[in-house]
Amino acid sequence: MVNLEWYRTFKAIYKTGTLTGAADSLFISQPGVSLHLSSLEAYVGYKLFDRTGRKMIPTERGKVLFNAVAEPLTKLEDVEKNFQKSTEKHTPTISVGMCFETFQTTLEQYVSSLPFNLIISFGEYPEMLDQLDKGILDLIITPKKGSSPNIEHEAFSSEQIILVGGKDVDTDAFKKVLKTKDAEQIEEWLKNEKWYGTTGDMEHLFQYWTLNFGHKPNFRPNYIVPNLNSIIRCLKGGTGLAVVPDFLCKNEIDNGDVKLIWEGKKKLENTLYFGCRKKTNYQTEIDHIKGLFRKMMGK
User: Fold this and answer.
1) Which of the residues 108, 158, 189, 262 could staple to 163 if both were Cys, CB 3.0 to 4.6 A apart?
2) Taking every annotated instance into account, which residue ranges of this chain make up the domain HTH lysR-type (predicted)?
3) Residues 237-289: tens digit of each pLDDT
């Protein structure tokens, strides 16, 4: 089934004559415009534009298609405008991408009080950056910056990756091993403990281990659980080790339910960024979300 947005994008290209002009008028990225056009061309089975320099010249079949869809699209847009005017209050909807644990720890508690509609998306950071660039997402929370000229990144906080354990872990024994400053002894002691990991993302453990011991861990965690918040809850049982971002377990450490075991020889820190398109219709809503994150993360 054809996507109506493909026709809307086709009309914008036809009217503006360029991919950039269409992107500006629709408030989406140029790659998103290109994706819509290529999808529509694949669907109808023929080229709709000839590309001459930066100009998009409609083909004969492109002209026929425009004549067929232009008036229905205009009527549909008029209906949409009239519906919005007749509604007492139009509520915008924004889509935000972040990791599951970040959502649970920060934004989840505020969702019911938001003055707009919200769609939360979870996924890998490269995928979220791509969806932001294509206009599928409006805002992402990420420790990684993309390279698209359509996206701006704003640093707002940082996370430190730390080694934590249950309250019954023998930290006195570990401190004695640390005093030796012998990396092999420290590594061996840690490997003999029970470890927690997640099904999807082991990057924190890999980065932490490589920074402190010069190589990736040569063992697999004993317990694989769905996500980092699950690890924190499991550690409250008293035993086990895990490498996690500090903000996920701050309260548990303060309450004594979980122990900070080791920050490492060198601190492993990630900068957290807001990522959004430079042109958006939802700046007010995005600023509201940003304000909640700054409130939660102390900056």
Assistant:
1) 262
2) 2-59
3) 999 999 999 988 999 999 999 999 999 998 999 899 999 999 898 999 999 99
State whether 224 and 169 are in the same domain.
yes
**Domain of 136?**
93-157+270-297
Q: For residue 241, which of 161, 168, 164, 160 has the smallest C-alpha distance? A: 164
Are 14 and 82 contained in the same domain?
Answer: yes
**For the domain that residue 241 is a member of, what is the CATH number?**
3.40.190.10
- As a dihedral over the C-alpha atoms of residue 234, residue 217, residue 128, residue 226, rounded to 10 degrees, the angle is -20
Question: What Å distances lie between residue 174 and 105, 192, 275, 284, 287, CA to CA?
Answer: 30, 11, 40, 50, 45
User: Domain check: are 39 and 165 in the same one?
Assistant: no
pTM given for the model: 0.63
Query: Considering its fold, how many domains does the chain have in total?
Result: 3
**177-219: pLDDT as tens digits:** 999 999 999 999 999 999 999 876 688 899 999 999 999 999 9
23/108 same-domain check: no
- What separation in angstroms does the CA of 51 have from each of 13, 64, 67, 228? 11, 18, 20, 48
